[in-house]
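Exam revision sheet. Question 4 asks you to relate a sequence to its structure. Input first:
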Amino acid sequence: MKQQGDMGAVVRSIRGNVGNHVRVTKNMGRNRYDVVEGTITETYPCIFTIKLDEAADTIKTASYSYVDVYTKDIQLQFV
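Answer key, structure tokens:
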């Protein structure tokens, strides 16, 4: 996802894709990246949650801040 001009555009973009599948690339520093896939499930005023695609017997949820997307600490690719 490209960095938007303002924070409101990032929030609107994520809220418009609730229920869609997404690939999250998290920059962990020193050329290390963590890549996970899941579905955007909930949006809140400061964060959004993603239900991760893991084994069928476990349900894992991750939460990220809109600021992380805006500052490119995480990158979202809608699949």
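Marking note for examiners. The chain has a mean pLDDT of 90.
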